[in-house]
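Onboarding guide, step 5: your first structure request.
Type a short instruction followed by the sequence, for example:

Predict the 3D structure of this protein.
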Amino acid sequence: MPIDSTPADVIIKPRNVMFARDKQSARWWNGGNPVATAFFNSMSLTFPKGEAFFIESVRHYRDSVPAHQQTQIDAFTKQEAAHSREHGHFNDQVKKAGYDIAPMEAELAQRIAQMNQAAPIVRLVTTAALEHFTAIIAHACLKSDRHFKGAETDAARLWQWHAIEEIEHKGVAYDTFLAATRNLSPLKRWKFRSLVMLSVSSAFVRARLQAMGRFFDQDGINTPGIWLRTFGYLVIYPGLLRQLIPAWLAFFRPNFHPWHHDDRYLIDRHLGRLGLPASGTETLIKPV
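The system replies with structure tokens like these:
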């Protein structure tokens, strides 16, 4: 039977994990690589405000979904709130490393303010599309160590913890979207989410490249050569964008659901490696 909702045995486990607060990261914390560092810095800048947008977009529909989905939304909210908090601290480290991120934060705030003017259902499907992006990025980052090879330990652990929880709750926004559009025909629902995903994808890639350019400017390396390295980094090795293509295309299948691809084995693999709590709300300060 095709999966049309998150499997009942998927458990979303909020972990109140706090990463090092008293250690200054290197400017190029990801293996001394300015391209890898700029890419993940550009991602992190979006999370504090972006996760808040996701939370509000999904919670708007909480009272209209079945009880088991309400429980999932509550757990999703707790996980996303923790991600927002920890990436806020990570972004503080980026500032302390010498980067001026205020203009980028202001631009993001303006974009989110514009998105908040849209109808609730548009905000929800936008969240579902972006949550698919974060889930497939999370899968790639957990599947191979290449993305954080040589990265500072605390930074790598932050991203891997975030990836674990993105996989756990990858079906929540989409299930909420399915519930909210249950009166739409399958064709209208497919067309709606597909068009939004195309728009979101273009904006996502464009925004990442623009932010990376801002970091390169501040590093004094914004040259054709660094963009050639960026192409190689994103497409050839480690090739994150290339790795995302099959999973990204899957979103356009008429019967798509995030849990058609069950990648919980990656969660099991990394929880033990990272020494993170398997469940509950334990606090782990300064992982070692």
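Each response can be followed by summary notes, for example: The mean pLDDT is 93.
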